[in-house]
Amino acid sequence: MEVYGRVHSFESFGTLDGPGIRFVVFLQGCPLRCRYCHNPDSWATNGGTRISVSEIVKKIDSCRNFLRSGGVTISGGEPLVQPEFSYALLTECRAKGFHTAIDTAGSLPLDQTGKVIDAANMLLLDIKALDNELCIRLTGSDNKNTLATLDYCEKTGKEVWIRHVLVPEWTMTSEHMEKLAGYLKKFNCVSRIDLLPFHRMADFKWHEMNMPTPLPGIKEPDQQQINSAKEIFSTVTGKYVS
Ligand code: SF4
User: Fold this and answer.
1) The CATH number of the domain where 96 resides is what?
2) Residue 210's CB: how many other CB atoms inside 10 A?
């Protein structure tokens, strides 16, 4: 039976969302409200375009030659808010020989998401903040499910790339970065950490949606601050940091 879901957009030549060149499917809907979100137009679960798994797989197949070094990533929004759709899409892609990744904040409970995670080759797991209070202030939600998702990947041996947004005065304090790096060190499933500097390129989207400027007064980190953050994460974890 054909499975339908709601998609925000596609990127047929993605180089930032997993290993190699990737076809990225951005799914519609997200339960979080990150103060630095660069895609607030992906929040509404009833937005985007309704489309079937087979229509998407046809698009992906037409790019097969470019995707040999990479594969397919489902992102968002939060792809796990549509678990049946994500599961069907990942399963179909893997059956066709594509490497698959889920780019997720892990904000939903494992009883809804475990089966979908099992269906992918790897996870790009976005840890917003290790400190729970900070996480709530930054995203509107706690980090319980995110940390449980990481535990689940460790238990099942699922490869994880951690993603973490560096926000000056919020997550980019030495105290928070050292704590998070110390926490990640013990996870064998984590093969890489991507640090993503906060940027203001999406402010216009917030204005278009009649929302106030996100994180007013917070500046984008400079290269020296970014290098210091990378140094902390690579020294403490001993892992590859980008
Ligand atoms: S999880 Fe991603 S899409 Fe959802 S609010 Fe946060 S940054 Fe935006």
Assistant:
1) 3.20.20.70
2) 6
Distance 118 CA to ligand 1 centre (A): 22
Residue 209, CA atoms < 13 Å, CB-side half-sphere: 16
* Number of structural domains the chain divides into: 1
- Cα–ligand 1 centroid distance for 76 (angstroms): 7
By residue range, what is the domain housing residue 222?
4-241
Q: What is the pLDDT of residues 40-97, one digit of tens each?
A: 999 999 999 999 999 999 999 999 999 999 999 999 999 999 999 999 999 999 999 9
- Alpha-carbon distances, residue 181 vs 54, 151, 190, 215 (angstroms): 40, 16, 11, 24
Cα 68 to ligand 1 centre (Å)? 29
Ligand 1 probe mutation, 28, 32, 209, most atoms within 8 A of CB: 32
Query: Considering only CA atoms, which residue is closest to atom 3 of ligand 1?
Result: 77
pTM: 0.96
